[in-house]
Specification:
CATH topology of the largest domain: Endonuclease, Chain A
Helix content: 25-40%
Number of strands: 28
Radius of gyration: 27 Å
Shape: globular
Low-confidence stretches: 1-20, 249-254, 716-720
Distance between the termini: 24 Å
Strand content: 15-25%
Length: 720
């Protein structure tokens, strides 16, 4: 099975003229993202997954596409309206990109609706029913009418549409219904609009078993006579609106808190980017919606019988363990237990890496809670990008401040769609006495770092946590990430400089281990790739293995092309966007790119450079990071890049985590030179990296538990 190479279809390059077409060195960023979301959707068709997990993939695909329009398409449309003449790296104008995006997105929406129809049939067979209007029997109708009168009717506000009542504002992601009515007494026509409040349950769970659901819009349509007594319904349609939801930072913003408070309010009224119409909408109703909401700026589409597929998450929540992935219990590092649960003692003895979600995020919370309660801890510093709505991390920082410790929290207000939540946390932290800092005006602080300063033996010792993912207990259960704990004094000094840079703009002067963007991260990566190129040109083995979420940066892509031409073997695991063209003769024939999409969202950033094979202990140079290889991560974000030098930690990350990603053949897709993704065939030796780590304890934090234990270890050097 392959995903369609939209860009190749759009441009149809002539192979013989490749070098004369510099735009063909890259895939388009937006189309590459749509291809990724198509891979997510195809997991909804993967019969190897339980039924409700397939429905979850469909829901995720729908939510992903919403955000894509609200941010990426909104940005392109804004550039087009301002007549910005800017070419993408692949050589397309803004208008050409929009045209290609519309075609690809419409095909994706049509595919989503086909998948929904198939899954709906499967749900029926499994005893989970999302009822159509004609499937509601009389007893159910009686219950629904009472529900409508008691729960929905009081929250609905019909609004007439006529010269005296202008078309109302429809909020972002707002689901609404428009009615054509005729008054029974005199056949006078009237048009009415009904918005479903955001607090309305989209899928109404009917009482009893088997589980049955009815959509809120179907209930409103069914009981329109109750809402409009004395009228008969001539026509009705459901529609949905997506608005421009990006927030741009103005350089003259003097108060970030006030700016974002106002910007969030403005975002709710952003320009309409997409108008979604229910399939079969009557021409008259469609015309008024297009006129009032579409204009020349919005993209308009008939999206199917069910709009807002992201809301299907409510059905996924149904208590049917037989239709979901088998549960598993994340492991707490044994080595910390061997030290009586004392995180600091365990970290002081040796660096520790924790592989989420297979090892519990509770170890991070334990680290912070212990810091809050330990009388010898004098200071805590923490970056907060996304912390979630119910955050034990926030509570630990508040407890530490209330205990009299010096606590600094770098709260990133520019975390997209979490701005409002982060403003809330910043206020709560400040009330507790935490020193809250918002970092740079025009850079996001995306690095995930915490440091704890502890008084020991008459001196101070710094303990650090570096994460590839957010301090978010919920996503830590479904994202694969790494947490690295160390008491290395050099790393502690570097972390201190990093925080001073963010809080006081104090330029780091002598960082010895930690790379930092926008200071030197891209330059460090280029130097590492150059070292591999030198190895290859000297006739020695040279290799690069890198795992990330996105590869977009033209400078690094060009450097990888150069490495390929020099003879460096390059293996890339890029989950989502990849603008590099692999496998092109004379350009990238030694570069292979794969994407892993499965039970968990691959999120960790791991980079290995094989020149380390010549170093002591036969070890490659290995790094973890918070950054993807995108211009924004190198130029407009504070990110870190950390070398992994401890042999045990090095072995776990490279010989287990990295190799497992490379040899996975059950959830992997290979990217071709034409932009198409082909699902890898498992063959005679199937391997699922997520199942492997759920069922096989890793080397992480094993301590004495490793003695005599049979822990499977994969290895690049032992062959794949």
């Amino acid at each position: 099975m392959t995903t369609r190479p939209y860009l190749a279809r759009l441009t149809e390059p002539d192979d013989d003229a490749f070098e004369a077409m510099p735009g063909e060195r890259y895939f388009n960023r937006e189309l590459s993202w749509l291809a990724f979301n198509r891979r997510v959707l195809e997991e909804a068709e993967n019969l190897a997954h339980p039924l409700l997990e397939r429905l979850r993939f469909l829901s995720i695909s729908g939510s992903n596409l919403d955000e894509f329009f609200m941010v990426r398409v909104a940005g392109l449309r804004g550039q087009q309206l301002q007549e910005v003449e800017r070419l993408s790296a692949d050589g397309l104008t803004v208008s050409q990109q929009l045209a290609a995006v519309i075609v690809a997105a419409d095909e994706l929406v049509a595919a989503q609706q086909r998948v929904w129809a198939a899954l709906r049939s499967g749900l029926d067979e499994a005893g989970l029913h999302v009822l159509r209007r004609d499937e509601v029997d009389e007893p159910t109708a009686v219950w629904l009418e009472q529900y409508f009168r008691d729960q929905l009717f009081p929250t609905l506000t019909p609004q007439a549409l006529d010269p005296a009542h202008p078309f109302p504002f429809i909020p972002n992601k707002g689901l609404s219904l428009i009615f054509d009515l005729v008054r029974a007494s005199d056949d006078e026509p009237i048009r009415e609009l009904v918005m479903l409040p955001a607090v309305t349950a989209r899928f109404i769970r009917l009482p009893g078993e088997p589980a049955r659901f009815v959509t809120a819009e179907a209930v409103v349509k069914r009981f329109a006579p109750v809402l409009f007594p004395g009228y008969r319904v001539v026509g009705c349609a459901t529609f949905r609106v997506l608005r421009d939801s990006d927030i741009e930072i103005e350089e003259e913003a003097e108060d970030l808190v006030r700016y974002f408070t106002n910007a969030i309010k403005r975002r709710r009224r952003g320009r309409v980017i997409r108008l979604e119409l229910e399939t079969g909408t009557a021409p008259g109703l469609a015309a008024v919606l297009k006129e009032e909401l579409g204009g020349a700026q919005a993209l308009i589409t008939e999206s199917g019988q069910l709009l807002g597929l992201g809301d299907l998450e409510r059905v996924v929540e149904e208590d049917r363990p037989d239709l979901k992935f088998p549960p598993f219990a994340p492991r707490f590092p044994e080595r910390i237990r061997e030290f009586g649960g004392n995180c600091f003692a365990a970290i002081a003895a040796k660096d520790i890496v924790v592989h989420h979600p297979y090892e519990t995020f509770d170890v991070v919370l334990a680290f912070l809670k212990q810091a809050a309660n330990d009388p010898d801890v004098v200071a805590i510093k923490q970056t907060l990008y996304r912390a979630g709505k119910q955050s034990a991390v926030i509570n630990a920082l508040i407890a530490a401040a209330e205990a009299g410790k010096s606590v600094t929290a770098v709260v990133e207000l520019k975390a997209r769609f979490d701005e409002e939540q982060n403003l809330h946390w910043a206020s709560a932290l400040e009330r507790a006495g935490v020193q809250v800092v918002y970092g740079f005006i025009d850079w996001k602080t995306h690095a995930k770092v915490a440091m704890v300063v502890r008084r020991e033996a008459g001196a101070f010792r710094t303990y650090c946590h570096f994460g590839t993912g957010n301090y978010h207990p919920v996503t830590a259960r479904i994202y694969t990430d790494l947490s690295f704990f160390t008491a290395d004094p050099a790393i502690g000094r570097d972390a201190t400089q990093m925080f001073n840079y963010i809080t006081g703009y104090v330029e780091p002067t002598a960082m010895t281990k930690v790379g930092l963007s926008p200071r030197d991260l891209r330059r460090s990566l280029v130097a590492l790739i150059d070292a591999e190129i030198a190895q290859a040109r000297a006739g020695r083995p040279a290799a690069i293995w890198a795992k990330m979420n996105a590869l977009v940066d033209p400078a690094l892509i060009e450097k990888l092309y150069e490495a390929s031409g020099a003879g460096v073997e390059i293996e890339l695991i890029v989950r989502a966007i990849c603008c590099l063209r692999p496998g092109v003769p004379g350009l990238s024939e030694r570069i292979r790119v794969k994407s892993v999409v499965g039970r968990f969202l691959e999120h960790s950033r791991i980079w290995a450079f094989g020149q380390g094979e010549l170093l002591p202990n036969d070890r490659a140079r290995l790094f973890i990071s918070s950054a993807d290889w995108m211009p924004r991560n190198f130029d407009r974000r504070v990110e870190y890049m950390l070398p992994i030098e401890n042999p045990t930690v090095h072995e776990q990350i490279l010989d287990q985590v990295m190799v497992a990603n490379l040899i996975d053949n059950e959830q992997s897709w290979e990217l071709g030179a034409d932009g198409g993704y082909a699902r890898v065939e498992p063959g005679e030796r199937p391997f699922n990296l997520h199942r492997y780590f759920v069922t096989n304890p890793s080397l992480s934090g094993r301590g004495a538990a490793l003695e005599g234990a049979d822990v499977p270890t994969l290895s690049l050097r032992r062959g794949r």
